[in-house]
Amino acid sequence: MIKPFNAGDVTIGGDALTIIAGPCLAESQELCEDVAGEMRDLCRELGFNYIFKASFDKANRTSASSIRGYGIEVGLQIIASVKALYGVPATTDIHTAEQAAQAAQLVDMLQIPAFLCRQSDLLEAAANTGIPVNVKKGQFLAPHDTKNIVEKLEYFHSNGIMLTERGTSFGYNTLIVDMPGLEVMRGMGHPVCFDATHSAQRPGGAGTTTGGVRESIPAMVRAAVAVGIDALFLEVHPDPENAMSDAATQWPLARAREILEQVATIRAAV
Fold first, then answer.
1. Rounded mean pLDDT, 86-103
2. Is 6 inside a domain boundary?
3. Which band of pLDDT confidence, cut at 50, 70 and 90, is reported for residue 205?
């Protein structure tokens, strides 16, 4: 039995699929507004819930010279203003326990990065905010290993728990997705999300940046929706090739309808 929870006015784990989408990095106010507005309208048309996502800081970049973003003060304000403008819930990732309370004042769900998914202090701080916590499964973990993450968050009395699949390390610079693993994680009693764009990455595969195979995203999305998920995570950008982060795998905003219409068709069938 899945335990649904609310992120703002969106119920995750209910009848409707939730789309969590936005640019990887809050590059600018204008960019975030453009993406959020179009994604909100498209999700409404197709019957999906929508949550806006952007990062205020990319703290795990491959190279020290990579752009990280505006930081927590300015970045959170951009995210909060987009949330208010379009009347949608928002989420962002945190990297330290100290960031949890500050971010929770302005967003509706906290995201724990995959590399930090087992950090007890970070999980506890996120749970203590009283808003839901979405944990990305580490690339180094098997699906059944996420049981320990769930039990930690339950011990810390988290007000809503979700696990996100984002690929598993398979040799050097390569990720694979274990689709049956989605059922394993969902079997722990909490909603499960599939992060399609990060699953298409090739970590460190471009030397000083992370590479990826963007055109593999639709196939993985179709498979995950067919297996059964509660939320779909997509990083979306109007000009991915010139994005400040994850340029190889962000999905083009102009093609968002293409992929979400496929999701709607498969979702209806299953």
1. 98
2. no
3. low
